[in-house]
Design a protein that fits this description.
transmembrane; about 375 residues; three-stranded mixed sheet; transmembrane helix; 5 strands; HPP family protein; CBS domain; membrane; mainly alpha
Length: about 375
């Protein structure tokens, strides 16, 4: 039995992890890869001939898998595809000038293409297959040698364009855009959530220590780590919800409230913002102290309007809408980035569309303190 158990452990080490995707995503990716390859190959077949399209079909099919099934990976970004195809074509054409077509030439083209992709940050495995195909591609009589690379690169470019269209239409953002932390104060300081805990430099160092290529962008890795931290914090905080920490005795105003009266309410009750309700008590806007003092609009409008309170104006003219709000069942962990990194001083809390409370930064700090004290006790 111990020998059998050891064999099972060794066999399990060769099995891949269970994919964290759903059958719906499998179907989406399969349909996109099939359609993308079909349209791209068919177009190149019409332009350059079916035999030429068939010659480069292998690299195109492999690229289609990456572009539609793992479009968030570093290997599947547009520059990775186009850059690798250009590298493979250039290397294969140069080798063809000095060496005859053969397996050795193809192996050399593969290695040199890979060596060129690394510093150009365009690593894409099908580019290696394209280098192999390019070595054996023969231009038509009377055509320059570089003409053989034209259909190959055109097919790759067509796949990228189709991936841009299909992935975004099916709500899979492509290409993966870098996430920029909000800079509400226009200073060099990082966002509050990035000042403690894991930082960008820590992620870079961890990736360097792996000493190998990891098919994930630094931004995606950061999102993954921070999401893991939030799930762990949520588990430790139990079931602390917005309804348990919100203020219920609310001071509100209407769109017809004069700015001067709104300012008195803010000062009297020491508030950062006022929710704006219509006649049916629906939340239609929110106004802060800065909204009352600084006119909105273009710089020339603000200059002409001056900085200062216009007593003849109403809140409906300066309020912010639509209003970012949360549900009463929102977990406390989900409130942290909203009240720390997004520059919000308070969040209206809705229940079945009705305003039932407001959560301020002070309310959140108090809840975090109670959770910390409970763990210390």
């Amino acid at each position: 039995m111990p020998a059998l158990t050891g064999w099972r452990h060794r066999a399990a080490a060769y099995l891949p992890d269970i994919p964290h995707t759903r059958p719906r995503e499998w179907l989406r990716a399969s349909l996109g890869a099939s359609l993308g390859f079909l349209l791209s190959a068919a177009t190149c077949g019409l332009l350059f001939g079916s035999s030429v399209a068939l010659h480069f079909a292998g690299p195109w099919a492999a690229s289609a898998v990456l572009l539609f099934a793992v479009s968030s990976g570093a290997l599947a970004q547009p520059w990775s595809v186009i850059g690798s195809y250009l590298c493979a074509s250039l290397v294969a054409l140069l080798i063809g000038l000095f060496l005859p077509a053969g397996i050795a030439s193809a192996a050399l083209a593969l290695g040199l293409s890979l060596l060129l992709m690394y510093p150009l940050r365009c690593l894409h495995p099908p580019g290696g297959a394209l280098a192999f195909c390019m070595v054996f591609a023969s231009p038509l009589p009377g055509e320059p040698a570089w003409m053989a690379s034209l259909p190959a690169i055109s097919g790759g470019l067509g796949l990228v364009l189709l991936a841009l269209l299909f992935n975004n239409l099916t709500r899979m953002p492509y290409p993966r855009r870098r996430s920029l932390a909000p800079d509400n104060h226009q200073t060099q300081d990082p966002a509050p959530g990035a000042r403690v805990g894991i930082q960008a430099a820590d992620l870079d160092q961890a990736l360097d220590e792996l000493e190998g290529f990891v098919d994930i962008t630094r931004d995606d890795l950061e999102r993954l780590v921070r999401s893991t931290e939030r799930h762990a914090l949520r588990r430790s905080m139990g079931e602390t919800r917005a309804r348990e920490m919100m203020s219920r005795d609310l001071i509100c105003a209407s769109p017809e409230t004069p700015l001067s009266h709104a300012l008195r309410l803010l000062v009297k009750h020491h508030l950062k913002a006022l929710p704006i309700l219509d006649e049916e008590r629906r939340l239609v806007g929110i106004v802060s102290l800065i909204d009352l003092l600084v006119p909105r609009g273009a710089w020339w409008k603000r200059l002409l309007g001056g900085i200062g309170l216009r007593r003849d104006r109403l809140l409906g003219e300066v309020m912010t809408r639509p209003v970012l709000h949360v549900d009463a069942d929102t977990h406390a962990v989900e409130l942290i980035p909203l009240l720390s990194d997004h520059g919000l001083h308070c969040l209206p809390v809705l229940e079945r569309g009705e305003l039932v409370g407001v959560i301020t930064q002070t309310d959140l700090i108090a809840a975090l303190e109670r959770d910390l004290l409970s763990h210390l006790g």
